[in-house]
Write a structure and sequence with these properties.
With 333 residues, the chain is an alpha/beta fold. The protein has 13 helices and five strands. Strands 2-3-1-4-5 form a five-stranded parallel β-sheet, with helices on both faces. Helix 3 packs parallel to helix 5, helix 4 runs antiparallel to helix 5 and helix 12 crosses helix 13. The longest helix is centred in the middle third of the chain and has 21 residues. About 3% of the residues have low confidence.
């Protein structure tokens, strides 16, 4: 079975890409791995032009194989995140085939092997095992590597998923677990949203046949229309009468013991967000209402700033991958 070029879901975290991955996995022809942060490892080892060490290729293949196993839901809980489901027998077959793929025996010049060959061979093997004719993955930040993906697969298709930035900010702010909650700051997340929006506009202008924007609010409110758009663009065969409620809930911060009023941004946070990304928000069709300046929430912002600075200060100092991500953010700004 010859498979197509990949479908890649990109955008920003906390914006519904896990739901969209599940939607695509519901159709009989698409197999997508959710939250596949493999290109970050390719970037950190500078393996875009070939692997400098055999061990780097082994690590990439292992990460891919581990994600196939995890998302199969054979040895982990089933749910909206683990939607690339397999039966235990299918997983056993896929793992046997993946074990034989390069790098398998330590032979061959790693510099002559390409990262995209390893990615394609592992994911397409999994797709073929479950009888799917298209393959791909979801990694929100992979829009940073869109040019390299298109160089590797000239007919790749990108679905760029964005959510109203104010809703995304709330999702970060009220995430119930730490240290993940410490990543929130209205300035940082607003900059990230603006940079992603600008990247989409630039990439769509350069590669109009490769990029499609899906707004989270639209796929929830106009599900049938958005499925029709996806089916025409990819192409795919997602059931047009698909009921999103039947797929499960991926909300990480909704809690029954919290009243909705407690999950609101302060007027100061809303003003900061508007100052940074208002133009891009309107250009992409999100609500145009603008918030006036207000000092309401200044003490909350000082507390958030201290927590954010403490969290990322340590990471930037000790984690090279975090430094790369911060570099991408600052460069795009």
């Amino acid at each position: 079975m010859k498979l197509n070029n990949p479908t890649v879901l990109v955008g920003l975290p906390r914006s519904g890409s896990t739901l969209l991955t599940r939607v695509l996995n519901e159709c009989p022809d698409h197999y997508l791995l959710n939250d596949l942060y493999v290109l970050q490892d390719v970037d950190s080892t500078e393996s875009w032009e070939g692997f400098s060490q055999y061990e780097d290729a082994v690590a990439i293949k292992k990460l891919l194989s581990d994600m196939v196993r995890h998302r199969s839901a054979v040895h982990s809980p089933k749910g909206i995140a683990n939607s690339a489901e397999m039966t235990p027998e299918q997983l056993q077959t896929a793992e046997s085939k993946m074990a034989d793929l390069w790098p398998a025996d330590g032979t061959g010049d790693p510099a002559e092997q390409k990262w995209n060959d390893v990615v394609e061979s592992v994911i397409s093997t999994a797709a073929q095992t479950v009888g799917k004719s298209a393959w791909g993955w979801n990694t929100p930040q992979d829009y940073h590597h869109a040019e390299k993906i298109i160089q590797a697969w000239p007919n790749a298709r990108f679905v760029f998923m964005l959510r109203d930035p104010r809703t995304m900010l709330k999702s970060y702010k009220f995430y119930p677990k730490r240290p993940a909650a410490d990543r929130y700051h209205p300035l940082a997340q607003s900059m990230a949203w603006r940079n992603a929006a600008r990247a989409f506009l630039k990439l769509e202008a350069k590669y109009p046949e490769h990029f499609m924007l899906v707004r989270y609010e639209d796929i929830v409110a106009e599900t049938r229309r958005e499925i029709e758009r996806l089916n025409a663009f990819l192409p795919a065969s997602i059931p047009e009468d698909l009921n999103l409620e039947s797929l499960g809930n991926n909300s990480s911060y909704a809690r029954k013991d919290q009243a909705p009023v407690k999950r609101e941004l302060t007027p100061l946070e809303l003003w900061i967000s508007d100052r940074i990304l208002y133009r891009e928000r309107v250009k992409l069709g999100f609500e145009a209402a603008k918030n006036p300046f207000s000092l309401s929430g200044v003490f909350n912002l000082l507390k958030t700033t201290w927590r954010f600075s403490k969290h990322y200060g340590k990471l930037v100092m000790f984690d090279a991958n975090i430094r790369r991500r911060v570099g991408h953010l600052l460069k795009a700004s």
